[in-house]
Amino acid sequence: MPLVAAYHRPRNLEDALSLLAEPDHVVLAGGTSINADRDASDIEVVDLQALGLDAIVADGNRVRLGAMATLGSVAESGLIPEWLQTISRAESPSTLRNLATVGGSVATRSGESLFLAALLVSDAHVEMAGADSQSLAALVEHGVPDGAIITAVSIDASGTGGEAITGRTPADVPIVAAVARTADGRTTLALTGVAATPVLADPNNPTAGLRPPADFRGTAEYRLMLAQTLSERAVEAAR
After folding, report:
1. Which residues form the FAD-binding PCMH-type domain (predicted)?
2. Whether 43 contacts 36, CB under 8 Å
């Protein structure tokens, strides 16, 4: 992680919010994203470990994932659908999976996050301190409000899910991936690798409006072809 100016470990949300209201203060969750370089900076990190935000609890069909719950704990929780457990395991190697958190994964909004795509199709809602709760789709589009802290993400655990991915090797981050979920006769689809963030797509016309980026792994045209093919496979798997 970059060399930081100070480290804070508040004992309650009120103190954490007060710290984040100060300039150059940022949230430290699992620590897998604040690692860009080793240059000295003015950043002061606010560690959320002591706030008790790691519980995973069920309430009917919905499951509430504490923001500090790790992807490893999600993958092993009996409250999580098997298909989402599988995706949680595939998100990163075990060493990072046991550090990376639900809240950090949401806040980072990586366009290649299979886990985030799975939350999107699971009708996820984000609970926050310092800001109103909102749908995950809205937060992915606009980002976490300044000074707010993600406290939990709730999902609908009903229905069936499926995914389809293409990568250079099985161990690589997918070039493009499709995740689908069917519940109450309705199918929801999300794609990764086609925009700066994962996107919800029309299962009947998944490439509509997409303008994928191009890089050394594939052209925009190639990613569009993958999006179409993988969407069909994921939707079929989710039936």
Report:
1. 1-160
2. no
**Where in the chain are all domains bearing CATH 3.30.465.10?**
53-156
Fold of 53-156: 3.30.465
Report the mean per-residue pLDDT for the chain: 92
Regarding the domain delimited by 160-237, which CATH topology (the fold level of the hierarchy) does it fall under? Answer: Enolase-like; domain 1 (3.30.390)
Pair 53, 152: CB distance under 8 Å: yes
Q: pLDDT of 132-158, one tens digit each?
A: 999 999 999 999 999 999 999 999 999
Least confident of 73-77, 106-110, 133-137, 167-171: 167-171
Domain 6-50 has CATH 3.30.530: no
Give me 168's structure tokens: 């250079």
Among residues 234, 139, 157, 144, which one has the least CA distance to residue 191?
234
